[in-house]
Task: inverse folding
């Protein structure tokens, strides 16, 4: 997912997406460990998307604390 698209989301949308991505990653890891699927790339992509969301949320928090 592109970081520019993530930046357009509101903080609530980001938190919702983060929660959805964490659930998806949990399911995929479970399936992967059971040998049901070969979706290692999807797991890696989800992990990176979660990190992007957390980074943007942290940036916004830092800007808010510096401004106030």
Result:
């Amino acid at each position: 997912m592109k970081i520019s698209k993530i930046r357009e989301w509101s903080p609530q949308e980001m938190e919702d997406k983060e929660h959805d991505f964490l659930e998806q990653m949990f399911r995929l890891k479970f399936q992967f460990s059971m040998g049901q699927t070969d979706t290692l790339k999807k797991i890696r992509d989800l992990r990176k998307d979660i990190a992007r969301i957390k980074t943007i949320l942290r940036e916004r928090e830092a800007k808010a604390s510096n401004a106030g």
Observations:
- The chain is about 80% helix and 0% strand.
- Residues 40-67 form the longest helix (28 residues).
- The two ends are 31 Å apart (CA to CA).
